[in-house]
Amino acid sequence: MTTAPPADIRHEAEDFLDTIAHEKHWSAKHLATRKETALAEIEKTGTWNLEYKELEHGARMAWRNNARCIGRLFWASLKVRDLRDMSDPDRINTALLEHLDYGTNGGKIQPLITIFAPSSPEGPAVRIWNHQLLGYAGYEQPDRTILGDPKNVTFTREAQKLGWQGAGTRFDLLPWIIQKRGESPRLYPAPKALEVPIEHPDFPWFAELGLRWYAVPILSDLVLRIGGINFPAAPFNGWYMGTEIGSRDLGDTGRYDALPAIADRMGLDRSRDSSLWKDRTLVELNAAVLHSYSKAGVRIVDHHRASSEFMDFVGREKKSGRLVSADWSWIVPPMSGSATPVFHKGWKDRALLPDYLTQPKAWVRF
Fold first, then answer.
1. Which DSSP string corresponds to 257-271?
2. Catalytic residue among 127, 244, 277, 284
3. Rounded to 5 degrees, what are φ and ψ at 30?
4. Is 346 part of any domain?
5. Is the pLDDT of residue 86 over 90?
6. What does pTM read for this prediction?
7. Is the pLDDT of residue 142 over 50?
8. Are 310 and 340 in contact (CB under 8 A)?
9. Per-residue confidence (pLDDT) for residue 41, from 0 to 100
10. Which of 237, 247, 295, 336 has the most CB atoms in a 10 Å sphere around its CB?
């Protein structure tokens, strides 16, 4: 994603200031002053500087607007760390370790964002290469099979080019790669992180499968856009919905593909799909994930509760006079979708701003 031209920045800055003025009950005089200051900065430099309260509310609005997130009921609780003065990779690495600690919070996951240096008219100041701060390596084997997480094969290769060597297991946490504009990317050791071994409340053999997952999902390659300003390094976390791990990360055929092994241990007939062996194993895998996180004291939400909370969010937004932006394919859970209230609604991605947006992979284009 490239930085918008000044004309677009002016439009987005004014629109954002109008919105925050309405929601925060600014006086007409204060709004006029902020607009005058912001537009003068844009005219002179091509960008503008948000005050902390504007940055904080803008980051919360971005979560509220994100069409792919089902957990937006708690948008106003997002804690915002303002590190916009920071673009040095070594300092960022330290700040990311702090974020991991604060966000994990001993298992009591708290929504948190850390915002580093914004883009200038010349482009991003700094990028974090990782899609999430935590993720497992994917090693391509001589027979073309993947050991670990197939999703991260390309990133694993990039890390290896920079000198990283993992232990070669199915669950090797990846290192961090941070790059400042005009410099070579820097590699940092894989962090120590809270992980949850997956076991089942009724099947003692389940633990023998060796499945595990990390406690907190921290998205780190999205660009936060507020008032026409891009923040290309702004790692953000909420907490997991169980099906993200059970149905997708561990269950998908293109990921850890755990269903066949579970079905065999359950003695199910895999010779035909009509036996519903996939459905039965998927339920047990998701039950195991919820059980394991609960036992470990790590915050997680099941897809039924998450769907109900999302409908509460929709109701609150309606009372506030705001439209809700939502992508049906992301909001409907990947298991038992029609058993949840979000399935039966027609959602529309309204592309509201501020928002967390995708950007090209850093190793493809910085």
1. --HHHHHHHHT---S
2. 244
3. -65, -40
4. no
5. yes
6. 0.95
7. yes
8. no
9. 96
10. 237
